Amino acid sequence: MCVGEAPPALQNPVRARALQLRIPDEHLWVPVPESLKCEAFSTESCEHYGVGRGGGVCEPITIPMCQGLAYNQTVTPNLLGHTSQREAVVKMSFFNAMVQSMCSVDIRLFVCTVYAPQCSAGEVQRPCRSFCERAKRGCEGLMTSFGVSWPDELQCNAFPEDDCISVSNGDGRSFRPACPSPRDILFFLFHRKTASLRCCMPREFLLS
């Protein structure tokens, strides 16, 4: 509505607000659309703490930290809503010291499954809550020494407990495929409802 067409009360925002609080005049109230009423939203399977489901078109991973994973396709927006891998790289810099120090054997894989999540047929695989907790727990001492806290948008209770990716260090002898290079360290990604995924990480990356 143009200012010239507005009722006198609405031409002064402060006065309009005061009148809204005092007089429930139907001309001063804008009804909430049915689609935006609170009752229309589900209380189940909700997204919070900034962790969404992501989704879009699969694309090759270009993020340096996430090279050499068991998967090479990701998607944007990612789980935190970053619309490009370039943007994700900037945000991931918070974790550089943690990944290089190997404060947790899970930290690199966890960070990548959030910032460069695996994409399969346009669908995103999310990390499990237990995966997040292990990564965070292993690096709490290092974060304390730097005077920083775990990012609010990655609070572990924002992640699912089922239909998600968990991690093992490959202790099981029954299946341990070799890495392409003997200098690589082998890890396994397990998706609870799909196949297991192998992940090899270069020792040079871990020890640098």
From TrEMBL:
Key word RNA-binding present: no
Keywords: Developmental protein, Disulfide bond
Entry's Gene Ontology molecular function annotations: Wnt receptor activity; Wnt-protein binding
Domain of life, per lineage: Eukaryota
GO biological process: canonical Wnt signaling pathway; non-canonical Wnt signaling pathway
Disulfide bond sites: 58-119, 66-112, 132-156
Occurrences of domain FZ (ranges): 53-167
One GO cellular component, as annotated: plasma membrane
Name used for this protein in its record: FZ domain-containing protein
